[in-house]
Amino acid sequence: xxxxxxxxxxxxxxxxxxxxxxxxxxxxxxxxxxxxxxxxxxxxxxxxxxxxxxxxxxxxxxxxxxxxxxxxxxxxxxx
Length: 79
Known about the structure:
The protein is of the alpha+beta class.
């Protein structure tokens, strides 16, 4: 049996509102677990929905660099 991949279908799924909502919710949980000074952002890119968590000020940059806050908060994104 051969499997034929539907690239257009994959692309539509990866760029869907449902996918954006899912990655945004995961990023929000990670930002909340990281604490003050971190925020989640999301967008639909050329090929897929994406989200990230970033620092918002110098103290959070220093905290993350010193204590690896985002790496430790990553587990909160599961769910």
